[in-house]
Design brief:
Rossmann fold; 7 helices; 7-stranded parallel β-sheet; alpha/beta; about 45% helix
Length: about 180
């Protein structure tokens, strides 16, 4: 499976990097390909390193103004003109999506992917990896949106939540096998 991972390019605390590294190694050891923002910095580097060390492939999609941070030696690296093209390419190159910890860029990517799914523009499984409760507030907001009628489809049709890497990968594999 080509698994798109949206995540931070920031250098983060071990409580985020250790679970990300474990998930990446699991992804690579399971024969999956990482499709990611292409950066060789921060958490993006941690995940790319883990996948590569475990024998997985790396497909990066950078953007022109960040091309100097792109990982050298990736199996494939595309440089998009802008963030909109980058998100479209990331989705097009993937079979499934995992949203890991991140800032406003990750949140932008996540909401766009979920909006496209809501409107039937893709049917790929999306799992939000809630490392150390990072997305507890977002999960509560999504549930409120669902309860108050802001979502035209059940929340579980849009996104699944996992508390750890093995659970996230198991959800993706089960969702993909069910298709």
């Amino acid at each position: 499976m080509n698994i798109c991972v949206f995540l931070s390019a920031a250098d983060l605390d071990e409580r985020y990097t250790a679970p990300a590294r474990d998930f990446a190694r699991l992804l690579g050891a399971s024969g999956h390909t990482l499709v990611w923002g292409g950066s060789d910095t921060g958490l993006m580097k941690v995940v790319a390193d883990g996948v590569e060390e475990a024998g997985g492939r790396l497909v990066g999609v950078s953007v022109d103004f960040l091309a100097d941070k792109a990982r050298p030696g990736a199996d494939e690296m595309v440089v998009a003109r802008d963030l909109a093209e980058r998100k479209a390419l990331l989705l097009a190159k993937s079979d499934a999506v995992v949203i890991m910890v991140g800032g406003t860029g990750t949140l932008d990517e996540a909401t766009e992917i979920l909006e496209l799914k809501k409107h039937g523009k893709h049917h790929k499984p999306v799992v939000l990896l809630n490392t150390d409760g990072f997305y507890d507030g977002l999960r509560a907001q999504f549930r409120r949106m669902e309860e108050e009628g802001f979502l035209p489809v059940p929340l579980t049709d849009l996104v699944l939540f996992a508390e750890d890497g093995p659970s996230a990968l198991a959800l993706l594999e089960a969702e993909t096998a069910a298709r």
